[in-house]
Design goal:
There is one protein chain. About 70% of the residues lie in helices and about 0% in strands. It is mainly alpha-helical. The relative contact order is 0.12.
């Protein structure tokens, strides 16, 4: 019988990081030309996704492990860590606010990618470090990259309503 301790998950061989959907891997050359903030958002999404699948209460620990495994650039790690920390500190508040604009969809019914992208964008809007338009564009890009076009449209609609409800647009 396999060992089901939580620590056994971390002692196992390193898993491939969350990859773009359906074999649409980003060429290495394109990764280098992406802005640091774009790469940082993708790293934060990877941590949120992993925590969503494992245990969101352990988000900081899981993010540290993900960032260590990926050996990401320190500047990128710092950017991603700030977003993850915002979700860790204000997760219940962000989820409640997102739930208000997804009246027909309970947050727990959404796919892990969509839920993680929404949390990431809500956290970035709460931090108010980037223009709302940029946050929306980046979130839609992540949803399409790691999900599909339907995910991107859904995320766009929810975040548009969310930002309007907060008076940001």
């Amino acid at each position: 019988m396999a060992d089901v301790r939580d620590d056994a998950f971390w002692d196992a061989p390193t898993q491939e990081p969350l990859a773009p959907a359906r074999g649409r891997r980003t060429p290495r050359s394109a990764t280098k030309t992406e802005r640091m903030e774009t790469r940082g958002r993708a790293r934060a999404l990877q941590a949120l996704y992993a925590a969503d699948l494992r245990d969101l209460a352990q988000l900081r620990r899981i993010a540290t492990t993900v960032f260590d495994d990926l050996a990401i650039d320190p500047e990128e790690r710092q950017f991603a860590s700030r977003l993850v920390a915002t979700v860790a500190d204000r997760g219940a508040e962000l989820d409640a606010a997102l739930s208000e604009v997804t009246a027909n969809w309970r947050l727990e019914r959404l796919g892990a990618i969509e839920r993680s992208v929404l949390r990431l964008a809500a956290a970035e809007m709460a931090r108010n470090d980037a223009p709302v338009k940029v946050v929306l564009q980046e979130a839609v890009h992540l949803a399409e990259r790691y999900g599909n076009s339907r995910s991107a449209r859904f995320v766009n609609g929810v975040l548009d309503a969310y930002s309007r409800r907060l008076g940001l647009r």
